[in-house]
Write a structure and sequence with these properties.
The structure is a single chain. With 444 residues, the chain is of the alpha+beta class. The chain has three domains: 221 residues, Rossmann fold; 73 residues, no CATH class; 123 residues, Phenylalanyl-tRNA Synthetase, Chain B, domain 3. 39% of the residues lie in helices and 20% in strands. It contains 14 helices and 22 strands. It has a six-stranded mixed beta sheet, with helices on both faces. A five-stranded antiparallel beta sheet has the order 7-8-11-10-9. Strands 12-16-19-20-21 form a five-stranded antiparallel beta sheet, with no helix packed on it. A hairpin with a 2-residue loop joins strand 5 and strand 6. The longest helix has 30 residues. The chain is elongated, with a radius of gyration of 32 Å. It starts with a helix and ends with a strand.
Length: 444
């Protein structure tokens, strides 16, 4: 089994020559065997143990056993005690989820502090099968059903090639002792029910069923890797960066299962869940233009031809920001630079929409920056009459996100001087009578 482990580690590139490895040891047979094997293979290892304080004296006994094991093997040990029940209550999660959170958080912190590049867990092939059914019952897709990977970031699982029987045989043949967790026999937990009740029945129905499932999981993992690669290439080809938001043409999401799944694979990256997917896809089918959906970190809207995603941000600037004649620049998320020059100096009109040029005499200082609001009206450059800003947005096909991120430069009387980055007011344009020019540059 030692050589099988070496081969599995090398094949999957789990440990590089200079890696230091933290080995998570509960005291149970799987983790104790993994520790012995890695020690025999001369990897640079240390032991890490969590006492979750869930079984009273038994938890403390496990801790003592692990400490003594580290001394026997002459391995450095890191041990920490947690009040798991309090953490679970405070965070309103299950005890099992609390233990998982505490364990992985501490492992990560410890690895960074002590310069360990890998964290080895003792999951094995039978764990894979149990995890498959757990995820199946939770209605997982291919990503969940494929099981655990040999490596996921810092986390490595060197025993995935071995089943429970192989591990027990190795422990017996090498006189390795361990601590048995009595809760492993209790069937109140789903994993234990699968282990002690479902899997034996499957073996009874079909001899070799567990091994067959293990092989199927390997196929699923390979197919998932292929799927992910094709998905990455597809999303890269269709996603467009537009100003501060991402956009994908609606035509890429046809009204069928393919379109819905592709949409989900994109939006889940930004925190949208399957319940929201149903609502978003329904709004897409019904052409509900302007509808907005929010996740914890992003908002999504359905535009005329696109689906757009924007990161949630607090209000970028104060409601107003005053600009005096002496102002030269504003260092806020809406960054403007000001310059005043005489008309008799060399001058040329700039057609860049992010640069506005005004007749100084037409400006009533102080100017202000503010967000647009319903009812705002101005006289766009070149027009005889005035227009609602909202109508200007419609005429120029502004998306919902563009509207949200559009600011106005207004004068002392709240008259709009410039829709920043778009159009100045006709009343403030440069004419033959202009003697002094104000140039304002919008720095995106």
């Amino acid at each position: 089994m030692k050589e099988q482990l070496r081969y599995f580690i090398e094949k999957n590139k789990l440990v590089e020559p200079n890696d230091k490895v933290l080995v998570a040891v509960s005291g149970g047979i799987d983790s104790v065997v993994l520790l012995h094997l890695l020690k025999e293979l001369n990897y640079d290892i240390a032991l890490v143990h969590c006492n979750f304080s869930l079984r009273g004296a038994e938890s403390d006994s496990d801790e003592l056993f692990v400490k003594n094991l580290a001394k026997k093997l002459k391995i450095k040990a890191f041990v920490k005690k947690f009040n798991t029940n309090v953490y679970a209550k405070n965070n309103k999660i299950s005890t099992q989820m609390a233990a998982r959170d505490l364990r992985y958080r501490w492992f990560s912190e410890l690895a960074q502090k002590e310069n360990f590049s890998k964290i080895a867990l003792a999951h094995h092939a039978d764990d894979q099968v149990e995890t498959f059914f757990i995820n199946l019952f939770r209605r997982s897709g291919i990503t969940g059903l494929k099981g655990m990977l040999p490596r996921n970031g810092q986390i490595i699982r060197p025993l995935l090639f071995a089943n429970r029987t192989m591990i027990a045989t190795y422990a017996t043949e090498n006189a390795i002792s361990w601590h048995e967790d009595r809760t492993n026999q209790e069937t109140k937990y789903l994993r234990n029910k699968i282990r002690h009740q479902l899997l034996p029945v499957l073996e009874e129905i079909q001899l070799g069923a567990i091994t067959a499932i293990e092989n199927s999981l390997i196929f699923l993992a390979n197919e998932n890797a292929c799927y992910k690669q094709l998905l990455t290439e597809k999303l890269k080809a269709i996603i467009r960066q537009k100003d501060t938001y991402l956009a994908v043409e609606k035509s890429h999401f046809p009204n069928n299962r393919y379109g819905k799944q592709l949409l989900f694979e994109w939006i889940k990256i930004y925190g949208f869940n399957k319940t929201q997917l149903d609502l978003i896809f329904e709004a897409l089918r019904n052409e509900a233009i302007g509808t907005i959906f929010r996740s914890a970190t992003h908002c999504l809207t359905i535009d005329r031809t696109e689906i757009q995603i924007l990161e949630n941000k607090p209000d970028d600037i104060p409601i107003t920001y005053k600009i005096e004649t002496t102002t030269t620049s504003i260092d806020t998320p809406i960054k403007l630079r000001f310059a005043i020059q005489e008309m008799n100096t060399p001058f040329a009109f700039d057609k860049n929409e992010n640069i506005a040029q005004f007749d100084f005499e037409t400006l009533s200082f102080p100017l202000e920056i503010r967000k647009w609001k319903q009812g705002d009206r101005f006289k766009p450059l070149g027009m005889k009459g005035s227009k609602l800003v909202s109508d200007y947005f419609v005429d120029h096909q502004f998306s919902v996100f563009q509207k949200q991120q559009t600011y106005l430069l207004v004068d002392r009387n709240n008259a709009i001087v410039w829709i920043i980055g778009h159009r100045i007011a006709d009343n403030n344009k440069i004419t033959q009578k202009t003697s002094k020019i104000v140039t304002v540059t919008f720095l995106k």
